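Sample intake sheet
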Amino acid sequence: RVEDARAAWRDSYRSARTADDDGAMAWALWSGGTLARQCGRLTLARRLLTWAVTLAAGSGDRLAHGYSLAGLAETGRIQGDYAAVTALHEQLLEQGRAHGEPRHMVWAMSGIAQMHRNTGDHAKALDLFEESVRIATEADDARGRAWSLRGVADVLSLRGEADRALALLTEAEAICRDMDLAGALAYNHKMRGNLLYRAGWYEAARVTYGIALEEFRAMRETRGAALARLGLAKSRARLGRAPQETLAELAALDREFADIGLRGARATIAAFRSEITLGATA
């Protein structure tokens, strides 16, 4: 299916280029960039989406421009390049407000919330995620609500409210199942693994990460699969796995995250590697 999708966007791009249609070329590049991001090829995704933004701006296709900007912003956020994409998220949020597009507002606001969460401002992140839930609920945006609930659950877990966080994830999971959102469901399971791990329930975390890993592999989601494997490695280490085995797996994952371009995941590996090494020499 990935090869079919790759051939389809390239065919669309060639047809649009033959017709000298910048807007259609932008849409094709947006499709290619989105596919590249889903396959873990973040550098390629960013290049294609940057090109899409340029073509869309010149064509006057506001929708293509907005989607391409959003794709570019999301890719940079996943890479951890917040300095480059924070302004893009804020621009998209203002555009959503100006044009009365709550789904775009929810997407941009939850992205900004995620960056605050990842840089340690949990109070601001929680405020924005909860506002995203409210907007999504009022707009009947079930997908946006599920994504935002996951964000709220993540921050509550960081504050030690495990039971409440897990209940919100259960609500988000029901939405994903009702809408048949396979990717969102897999990331929801990965987040559940994170929450269980933080609460010290390592065996439950191990099982849940395993479920997420199977789901990611089934859809060939490279980034999600690597993140689930990291969760599994950490859970198994807590359950008594030999330190040298854990360190070997962390080294392999670090190379994979470097290839994908995930700065935050590599920082997590470095911190856990130090913890394991110190524990082994204590």
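Comment: The chain has a mean pLDDT of 94. The chain has three domains: 1-79, 90-180, 200-282.
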